[in-house]
Amino acid sequence: ITQEKNGTFPVPEDQFVTNMTEFLANDKYGATFRNDDAIGLLDSRIYYAFFKIIGVGDRGPKSTLHPRWERWEDLTKAFNNGSGAGLNNGFQTSPWWTWYMSEETLVKDAIQGMLIAGSVSFVILVITTHNIILASYAILCIAGIVTSVMSIVYFQGWDFGTAESIAVVILIGFSVDYVVHICHAYVESHHMDKVRRTREALAKMAISIVGGAVTTFGDGCMLFFTTMFFFQKFAWIVTSTIFFALIWSLVFFPALLFIVGPQGETGDLKVLAKKIYTKYQESKNKKSQEA
């Protein structure tokens, strides 16, 4: 419009609002800006302006979007630093940044959820088994299962994104299940030595664990035939969780109990509490006699 009027560019300050008003009213040049409310012109004053730039690319994982977001942030800061008053408050945004921020929050929450679930599982195991040694061994196995499954995610080349952050919360539940069954059977055994306790726990629970694992593994396999990659990821995570849970609960955990499993009253919190109380009563009685 300035060229058509044989004007100069940049537009003189006293002509800017007039030219901008004509520009927005022009169907040939200003229709797009007018329809998108891209320029906030009200009462001969511009309150805001935004511009669309196609340059972010397709949506990708967090590892791809984060460098792009940083580059656009640097570009915006450079623009603001080189602009005068009134033009130095610009900011950039994109629908992909919203997704990136949401995914980042999901990942943080998933890690936090894993830590909370692991801590709560340890407390529950201590309460139910009354044995801190056995509970510690169980948590070690659960951590091994989670680490093994996460290694599958890593070797598949997946970023820890939305599907993984949702699935990892389910992973904790599967990881705890089988180990807890062995723990319970070990504690309930009438034997006192670790070898016979472990054998009895396996004899009682192994077949039930394998049966449950087969059905859950089969359910997970059905997801491999879905068309959405999100559910295919779920299939990998569920089936690998069941596989590693079986290995850790029926191979590593029993082997650990065979070698260094608690025997007799070792690690029993009820016995420990009783001993502490007995010592306290003896000390109290001794002081009373001395007095």
What does this molecule look like?
The chain has nine helices and two strands, in the order H-H-E-E-H-H-H-H-H-H-H. The chain has helices spanning 13-25, 31-35, 62-81, 95-129, 132-155, 162-188, 194-222, 229-260, 269-290, and strands spanning 39-42, 45-49. A two-stranded antiparallel sheet has the order 1-2. It is elongated and about 105 Å long. The mean pLDDT is 80.
- Lateral strand order in the biggest sheet: 1-2
Radius of gyration: 33 Å
Shape: elongated
Q: How is the main sheet built?
A: 2 strands, antiparallel
- What fraction of the residues are assigned to beta strands by DSSP? under 5%
List keywords for this structure.
single chain; mainly alpha; two-stranded antiparallel ribbon; 9 helices; 2 strands; elongated
List the helices and strands and how they pair.
Blueprint: H1 13-25, H2 31-35, E1 39-42, E2 45-49, H3 62-81, H4 95-129, H5 132-155, H6 162-188, H7 194-222, H8 229-260, H9 269-290
Antiparallel strand pairs: 1-2
Helix pairs in contact: 3-4, 4-5, 4-6, 5-6, 5-8, 6-7, 6-8, 7-8
What does this entry show, briefly?
This protein is mainly α. The chain contains nine helices and two strands. Helix 5 (132-155) runs antiparallel to helix 6 (162-188) and helix 6 packs antiparallel against helix 7.
